[in-house]
Amino acid sequence: MDGTTDHNDTFWINQKDFNYVMFEFNSLYEPPRLSYRPIYIHDAGFGIVGGQIFVNVSKIPRSGRTIRDVAFTKQYNCSGLSDTDPNKDIANASYTKNSLYKLGRWFAVEFTARSGGFRHVLQPNFGWFTQIYRGQTYQKVVEFKFDFEVPKHCSEENITETCTPGDFPLRIENEFTKLPIHITWGGWTDTTSGMKSYHLEIFKLSVNLYGNLTEISPLNPIHSADINHTQASNYSYVHTPSESGMYSVLLQAIDKANNSKIARRLVLYDPNSTISVNVENDDTFYVSSAARETGYMWQSAKQGTKTECTVQWTNHFSNNFISDGKLLNKVNAYPSQFENIEREGILKTKKFVYPGFDDNEGERTVEEKPNKNGIVHFEVNILYPNDINEPANGWRVNGLSDRYTFSVVPKDGKPAFIWVRAHDVLGNVKDDNTIVYFDSTPPVLSNNSTFARNQKGTYNHTSRLTFDAWDADSGVYKIEFRLIRNDNYQIIYNNSASVSVQNISCNSRECYCVLEKCFIFAQILDLDNCWFMMAKEDLDKVNVTVEVTVYNQALLETKLSVNVDTIYGLHGLEKCK
After folding, report:
1. Closest CA to 297 of 505, 470, 515
2. Which CATH number fits the domain that encloses residue 416?
3. Which of 21, 370, 434, 560 is 20 to 30 A from 171 in CA distance terms?
4. Do residues 207 and 216 make contact, with C-beta atoms less than 8 angstroms apart?
5. Does the residue 348 lie in any domain?
6. Paired strand residues for 73
7. Which of 379, 407, 439 is the last residue of a domain?
8. Which residue among 439, 467, 486 closes a domain?
């Protein structure tokens, strides 16, 4: 024991329900080193000769006063000790039953231990007598203060503190990042007990049965850290997750009484994923206003006037990691923990994200981030020269729409080159392009068509129609024909035929080429005589018109009609069934 009394400890408490309090202290005496006992000293003893516990509960000062009002005081003396019966060490416990939190906000306990002793001394002419020694007194004051208020942030209403730049309850500098997660905060205060520390927890979110993201194990973060309020370096923290995913970051601001307030922010960490295009299906990126039969490559138009053209790219672009993982879906509220324990009055321990401090700001909030297959917006660019290089300028933002309509004044045989660029939340970009050609003029047919009966050709009994057809802009795409009775206009047969093309480049006047595909002028249409079959009594009196429709690649058409005046002379009719 030394002789000082300046041994004080202060503890802040946030628990209210105290009705049974135990005080206990231990004091150890170290005796002095004494020489041998003289013969005139019969007996002696040194140690701890007294101890007290003094309890003082004081209330908040009344209005206009600064001195606390004493609500309760009591002293508990250690029993079994006296000047003539010292002890080397003592352990004392005293109890009181009070609802202390109702009486005040300060609860002080003063522990006192006093050393001393005695000796029985033989003094000539007087005989034996007892001398009492006064030693030293050691005091320690333990003060318990009560704070039931949670920390405040300068951004809250009715708070006198003013936020400075950077004073966020919790902030993720980049909500969608390929770099380590950079966490910052500031502006937290506590006017009663003062701020103590900050506890960080990081969770990897998972998808529940309803397709929402949530902390599946809300008490098992993948990473946690404690930062002392006075030692925090600009109130920031950096963490690199071990794998890509959507994460929630919880910051618990804690005061010295262990009251706390929790804020939550969300962050997508993904250094690896990219945007891909659908190469397995050609119908995911095409000009829907163009002719489907030509692979959406040609569109009809009116020469010299505006023509609307629509391009669409449904499911053509995707970030599969983000889309398959549903990483931009709605995020559920953090599941409150220990609610039953606090409700039953055992401890003030409920763990929850404080209202107003969940992630409702920035680009990634608790609400679903609109996207299509992980893509958050598209850009479109239309070029009229056939340029295979991605354009640097002229991009038009198209939001999340996966179709775009534009107007063009086309030139026959000339293209529009359409670029689409997809962006995801991480800054990844992927582009692709398609092309459409325009034609405003129908095919040209010659006026020198001939119909020759009973030729050696494709069928056992063949008649042949020959004519010239061409289209210098888009080429002849298909031929359709039908046989029509002239007496009642009944269609007795209809079908289509292939156009005459050439697999090698043209080196004569018999063919022409469009976009590296070469067409022959002369078209040969073989007709089976059986297609002309009708009732026997009509064979020598009914004429038939062969109506031919020629289409170019923009599906513009030109018709040719050839009259077959008598059917009776066609061979093989008697064998037709």
Report:
1. 515
2. 2.60.40.10
3. 370
4. no
5. no
6. 56
7. 439
8. 439
C-alpha torsion angle, residues 254, 255, 258, 262 (rounded to 10): -30
CA 107 to chain centre: 49
Q: 114 and 75 in one domain?
A: yes
What letters, b where the CB count within 10 A reaches 16 and e where it falls short, cover 33-66? eeeeeeeeeeeebbbbbbbbbbbbbbeeeeeeee
One-letter amino acid at 192 equals T
Q: How many Å apart are CA 283 and CA 295, to the nearest integer?
A: 9
Pairing of strands 557-564, 195-204: unpaired
| DSSP states along 148-204 | -PPPEETTSTT--SPP-TT--SSEES-SEESSPEEEE---EE-SSS-EEEEEEEEEE
**Nearest Cα to 109, choosing from 11, 213, 205?**
11
pLDDT tens readout for residues 505-524 = 787 788 898 888 899 999 99
- Residue 430 in any domain: the answer is yes
Cβ atoms of residues 474 and 542 within 8 Å? no
Contact 130, 45 (CB under 8 A): no
pLDDT digits (tens, 9 = 90+) for 142-170: 888 888 889 999 999 888 778 888 899 99
pLDDT for res 124: 75
What is the band of 392 on the pLDDT scale with cuts at 50, 70, 90? Answer: confident
Domain check: are 254 and 285 in the same one?
Answer: no
Which residues are CB-neighbours of 197 under 8 A, at least 6 positions away? 226, 227, 228, 229, 254
Q: Are residues 397 and 426 in the same domain?
A: yes
Summarised one tens digit per residue, pLDDT across range 365-384 is: 999 999 999 999 999 999 88
- The domain of 67 spans 8-146
> What is the number of structural domains in the chain?
4
CA distance linking residue 317 with residue 284, whole number of Å: 9
